[in-house]
Amino acid sequence: MTARLPYFRRCVEWPRDDVHESGGLCDIVAQERDITRRTFLRHVERQDRKDVERELGYAPYDPSAILTMARDWHVSYHRSRWHGVTVYYFRHSAIEYVFA
Description:
This protein is an alpha+beta fold. The chain contains three helices and five strands, in the order βαβααβββ. Strand 3 and strand 4 form a beta hairpin. The protein is globular, with a radius of gyration of 14 Å.
């Protein structure tokens, strides 16, 4: 298996000149493929993901925790291409969090 992808950036922090560029942010979203959380976890850096989840206010995974990211059905997981490179991301509150 290849190395897991580190957290890159949120869509709201994307460089303006790469939003509408061919292969840029708009194309990432337009060409996305839905994936499961399990698939997402296999491809991204664990500590980076945990840090982002904590920053979003989610509790670490614990069967007794009330709200974890894994249990939030509003979060979706995706795979796409960014200038030809495979990226994985999740969408939370209409913001894409990209691992590349």
